[in-house]
Amino acid sequence: MNEQQLLNLLNDMAGDGLVYIEEEGYSTSEGAPAWNATRKAEKLDRIALIPILCNLLEKAKKETLKQDIYFVLGNIGVNTGDPRVVHILLKRLEAEKNKYTLDSILSQLAKQKEVSNCAPILQFIDDPRWLVRHSAFQALSKCKCSAAEEALIQVITTSQDEYDLFYAIGSLCDLGATRSVPYLLPLMKHPKGEVRRSALSALDQLGDSTFLPLFIEAMKDRSPAVKYYALLAIQNHGDETAIDSVYQRVKTMLKRMRSIESNELVPAFEFLNRYREKYNHIQELFEWIISKKWDYLFDEEKDMVKKIVT
Q: For this UniProt entry, which residues form the secretion signal (predicted)?
């Protein structure tokens, strides 16, 4: 691919974004020129294009064109691991001001295997523009250094924004930042269920069985999402002390038909099955489900019960 072909690809990425499916009577992005060009850009792995893209960046005036160039650069970095891509993206953070363009750079950094220098990213974690701020949190997840961990811990201990907390917690998980565990614990009392769920998921990933009492207590949370993630944590770290809580959760959920399809009971079934041969009431629970509540299960849950009983 030469410079002109690359320009043609970038033009196609900025072209028609929708195609009308006459037989179905609706429009879709899939199969449109921009969609096809973007899929092609995602597969690029020619490092010879890197200096060409840099030259195009220097000449580009339109923000949308620059964003597409950063997208192509980022994917070449993902596909080749060439360290020049990270260096270029970090350096360009100093030159850009548009929030969407900054988001494009930071998002591409978040896709790389590792980012060697977090300093250029740290300046954006307090940015008043949430789009830039959240992308910076995600980019820090690829910075394997104490400075990135400290910055994200500072966010989860000081921010009042639930989305800041959500993205910062996710990045700490990606970093495997076990030192953040003491700072995650207070978030289990946060008024927003999504924050409690995120904190619980992080404790599941970063913690161990010593947090089992917390996971069992979370089964009483008013948020269904927190209850579900508590089940996942118990599945990973639970022992016999969690049986009663999981047993009661299954009984409660199957009191009535559920209107929203899910696989929420799968981790509960997997956990209880470990103790099925030891405890008669667990065996009886599965028999009750098969004989009385089969139609209350969704397909994945039925598959799990079939796997257990056979």
A: none
Q: Tokens 């400075």, residue?
A: 147
Note whether 297 and 262 are within 8 A (CB). Answer: no
How many degrees, rounded to 5, is the angle at CA 75 between CA 131 and CA 32?
A: 80
> Torsions phi, psi of 18, nearest 5?
-135, 150
Which tokens sit at 250?
A: 């299954």
Number of alpha helices (DSSP H) and beta strands (DSSP E) in the chain:
18, 2
Mean pLDDT of the chain: 93
What pTM was estimated for this model as a whole? 0.87
Phi, psi at 254, each rounded to 5°: -95, 15
Q: Where are the domains of the chain?
A: 1-120
Q: Which residue has the higher pLDDT, 23 or 86?
A: 86
Whether 20 has a pLDDT exceeding 70, the answer reads: no
Q: Are 179 and 157 in contact (CB under 8 A)?
A: no
CA geometry: angle 39, 101, 68, nearest 5 deg: 25
